[in-house]
Recover the amino acids of this structure.
């Protein structure tokens, strides 16, 4: 945590953008996996 003190404002913005991108990516992948799982379950019924 102490390292965060030494970040420049540009680095802080960059990290926030990267984190936001990762979260969106995981939501996207999660949605795809969930729909694939539902499709497989529905086809087996």
């Amino acid at each position: 945590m102490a390292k965060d003190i030494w970040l420049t404002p540009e680095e802080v913005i960059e990290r926030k953008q990267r984190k936001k991108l990762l979260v969106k990516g995981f939501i996207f992948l999660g949605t795809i996996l969930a729909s694939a799982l539902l499709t497989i379950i529905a086809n087996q019924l």
